[in-house]
Amino acid sequence: MRAAAHRARLDAGRRAARPQPRRPLRHPPGGDEGRRDRRRGRAGRGHHAHPHRGRLRASLPGHRRPGIRHPADHPASHRQHPEGIPPVKLRSTRVAGLAVAVAASLILAACGGSDTDSSSSSSAAPAGPFEFKDARGKTVTIEKTPTTVVAQSSVAAALWDAGFQVKGAYGELTPDAGGKLSFQAGNLDLKKVDVIGKTYGEFDTEKYALLDPQLLIDYTYDAKALWYVPQAQADRVEKLAPTLAVPGNYQTTDEAIQTFVDLAGKLGADTGSDALKTAKTRYDTALKDISAVAKTSGLKVAIMSPGKDSLYVVKPAMVPEGNTLKAQGLDLMDATGKSKDTDVFAQQSWEEAPTYKDADVILVDARTYEGSKADLAKVATWANLPAVKAGQVYPWYAAAPYSYASYAKIYAELAADLKAAKKL
């Protein structure tokens, strides 16, 4: 029976159209319609259908994903990059209520932990049944707790840090020249994971079928589509195994991280491990350090994602990082450009960049900044901003995994940057 089922899965995978790699675009021009999210909306060929819904985590403006515009255009808003990237981490407020509901369902349904360490695999999974109401309002029911789980890279990395190892992953998994993965992949060890796709728009359905998957987990930004599953392959993917959607947007990073810790526990991870406790302590310490700097520095901070033809400025209240940092007393500047209430980014012309001359520090989208530095230096209104001239431009990790380990590093780095920065 199992062999027959496996052959049926494999046949379904073979019939599915193989993904065609897309040529990465660098901030291509586009209309306002695509420039709203960091990580929201349905994964389409050029942009997501519903770019800015909910509190982004910056849907991330952060990675150059083929066929997508600036992070603001990405279906996942703050996880999406307005101009050419799909997260990252990013992530909006309208969806936050749904995120709370999902987190609550995880806590109530969570099963007991195991004696394994924080990197334990799915072998520790409770017997089951596994039942979960996801961010699409869909109840996922599996007779036995799944052990063969495949997930989008940021999701996989968050679960990994919480103690659950996925068997397969897809998303932003292309190493750089030095063999290092993007920060969006966190601590994933590709020697232990089957890679189903290495960038946005890639998903090898046949390879996925061969894994005999029991569950697939991805973000959703519109409560309908899975963020990194190509729309053309969605039906095939749904037939091969149950799929579970987690919210793409949250109010704070604390809430987001706890959601993944709870889900990892439900899948069998030891969420009381020393490693997880240590990561949580480092996370809390980093936030205290930021709070200490905020109390005495008087620094004004702006969060941005520069595009080719426009400047995208983050609305702090629309991203988990923004709300978390504001709670520590950091003075985050509001975006002044035109935008809808649900947008994570306000799109402004480069002529309007001097509006942010009072920013002592600029946090810039880490997914695209290094590759666009040279071009930005030629934009006078950018180059003449006081923070830029003072060298006080630091990374904003828009699509990082929601884990204590990941954000402990991010916030510790930010605390150090803020300590070194001066009031201009």
Automatic annotation (TrEMBL):
<dbReference type="Pfam" id="PF01497">
    <property type="entry name" value="Peripla_BP_2"/>
</dbReference>
<feature type="compositionally biased region" description="Basic residues">
    <location>
        <begin position="15"/>
        <end position="26"/>
    </location>
</feature>
<dbReference type="GO" id="GO:0030288">
    <property type="term" value="C:outer membrane-bounded periplasmic space"/>
</dbReference>
<comment type="similarity">
    <text>Belongs to the bacterial solute-binding protein 8 family.</text>
</comment>
<feature type="compositionally biased region" description="Basic and acidic residues">
    <location>
        <begin position="70"/>
        <end position="82"/>
    </location>
</feature>
<dbReference type="InterPro" id="IPR002491">
    <property type="entry name" value="ABC_transptr_periplasmic_BD"/>
</dbReference>
<feature type="domain" description="Fe/B12 periplasmic-binding">
    <location>
        <begin position="147"/>
        <end position="424"/>
    </location>
</feature>
<feature type="compositionally biased region" description="Basic residues">
    <location>
        <begin position="37"/>
        <end position="68"/>
    </location>
</feature>
<feature type="region of interest" description="Disordered">
    <location>
        <begin position="1"/>
        <end position="87"/>
    </location>
</feature>
<dbReference type="InterPro" id="IPR051313">
    <property type="entry name" value="Bact_iron-sidero_bind"/>
</dbReference>
<dbReference type="GO" id="GO:1901678">
    <property type="term" value="P:iron coordination entity transport"/>
</dbReference>
<protein>
    <submittedName>
        <fullName>ABC transporter substrate-binding protein</fullName>
    </submittedName>
</protein>
<keyword id="KW-0732">Signal</keyword>
<keyword id="KW-0813">Transport</keyword>
